[in-house]
């Protein structure tokens, strides 16, 4: 080998030692000082952080494994950063899980030093921020069985959020009293907060107190009855009494309310049931 070739090899070897740290996106073919997987955004939060600082008198490479299982609230693994704090090159490989992993699957990351003696590696795993509200539209079905003929149903959002509603069982002006089910769907994810008002007309010609019974059974997702509001239209005095169930009642126990006109004749009223944990 000529002296010129020897000088070239020596120059390349010296240059490799002076090169800045190298970042690898995927794979373990080449060692690097940092490996990243996925795409980082400001919507992510750190859900796992750990460091391995291992020393050995052996000349063989050191291998260690990081293992992380996201919780249900931590949602999905979206970005992984594996780096050497002292900028020493190492090998990294995702042995299980990785980007897109959700509970109960674990993400296992295997790191190996290039040479024996020392391995100092830090791992950060980023997940979708914990959010109690889904990003998908929410759908709930409300079912009630009136003991009178429903003439009009009004559905209103209690916030500025748009919603869709449709009757999936029963209807207004039915010739018989049957359950009425209404499906409510939010316009987008987050929360669904709405009220349903069912209007009925009592007998206008009776001089005796007109008695009606309203019954409501919350579905499992509605939790328990926490507040009941009964309002008379046109300030007609009415008398209301809980005949069954009531505050704290949950599925499958119905809440029944007996409503009557205090002075007889006709009356119009609305009954609102508010549910919560």
Oligomer: single chain
| Percentage of residues assigned to helices | under 10%
Look at the structure and give the mean pLDDT. Answer: 77
Beta-strand content estimate: over 45%
Q: Work out the number of β strands.
A: 18
Radius of gyration: 34 Å
Strand order of the largest sheet: 11-12-9-14-17-16
- Which structural class fits the helix and strand makeup? mainly beta
Report the end-to-end length measured between terminal Cα atoms. Answer: 83 Å
What is the number of domains? 3
Order of helices and strands: HEEEEEEEEEEEEEEEEEE
Largest sheet: 6 strands, antiparallel
Overall morphology: rod-shaped
Unreliable stretches (pLDDT < 50, length at least 5) are: 4-27, 203-208
The DSSP helix count reads: 1
């Amino acid at each position: 080998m000529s002296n010129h070739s020897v000088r070239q090899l020596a120059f390349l070897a010296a240059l490799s030692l002076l090169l800045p740290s190298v970042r690898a996106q995927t794979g373990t073919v080449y060692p690097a000082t940092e490996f990243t997987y996925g795409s980082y955004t400001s919507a992510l939060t750190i859900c796992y952080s750990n460091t391995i600082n291992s020393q050995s008198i052996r000349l063989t490479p050191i291998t260690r494994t990081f293992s992380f299982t996201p919780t249900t609230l931590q949602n999905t693994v979206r970005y992984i950063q594996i780096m050497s704090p002292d900028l020493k090159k190492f090998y990294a490989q995702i042995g299980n899980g990785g980007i897109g992993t959700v509970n109960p699957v674990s993400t296992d990351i295997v790191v190996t030093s290039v040479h024996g003696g020392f391995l100092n590696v830090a791992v950060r795993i980023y997940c979708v921020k914990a959010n109690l509200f889904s990003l998908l539209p929410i759908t709930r079905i409300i079912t009630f069985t009136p003991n009178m003929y429903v003439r009009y149903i009004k559905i209103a959002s209690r916030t500025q959020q748009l919603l869709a509603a449709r009757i999936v069982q029963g209807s207004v002006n039915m010739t018989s009293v049957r359950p009425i089910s209404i499906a409510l769907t939010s316009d987008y994810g987050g929360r669904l907060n709405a009220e349903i008002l069912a209007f009925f007309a009592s007998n206008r010609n009776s001089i005796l107190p007109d008695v009606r019974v309203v019954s409501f059974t919350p579905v499992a997702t509605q939790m328990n009855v926490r507040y009941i509001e009964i309002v008379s239209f046109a300030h007609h005095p009415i008398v209301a009494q809980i005949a069954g169930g009531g505050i704290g009642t949950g599925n499958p126990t119905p809440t029944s309310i007996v409503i009557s006109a205090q002075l007889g004749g006709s009356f119009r009223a609305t009954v609102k049931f508010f549910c919560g944990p």
